[in-house]
Amino acid sequence: MRTIPWKAMAVKSLWLVLAAAVAWLPAAPAGAQAPRDPKLGLVFDMAKGTQRYLVILVNFPDVEPRQPLEAVKERATNMVTQWYQAASYGQTHFQPTVKGPYTLPKPLETYRVSPYNFQVDPKRVMALVRDALSLAGTTARP
Fold this sequence. Notes:
Elements: E1 2-3, H1 6-23, E2 36-37, E3 41-42, E4 49-59, E5 63-64, H2 69-87, E6 92-103, H3 108-111, H4 122-136
Parallel strand pairs: 1-5, 4-6
Antiparallel strand pairs: 2-3
């Protein structure tokens, strides 16, 4: 089996975490305008309080992970939660639900998702997310 550096594995893992977190943020009411702060610009304040998010831990069948599962869970749950709590000055608390680990059905090369936003192929990202959600099952939403 091949190994991939921790940085690449972390980027893919955190991407799934962030995508899941964003997917469950509350939607703004129709016609609502985001307030504008003179220094910060647009301010979104509907994400205050406890926000639940889903972490789906996945392995690629052709890659041997370099980090222990517990280290990946720590990074995807506690570290993310602590960062958002600090960044929101204690106004936002994240509550993760962890599923997995699951082994994806296709090798890493099939999903090859770039860590650089400007190089991302949306079809590959959607394939990765679709396969991860399928493995986690339809009851995966926290």
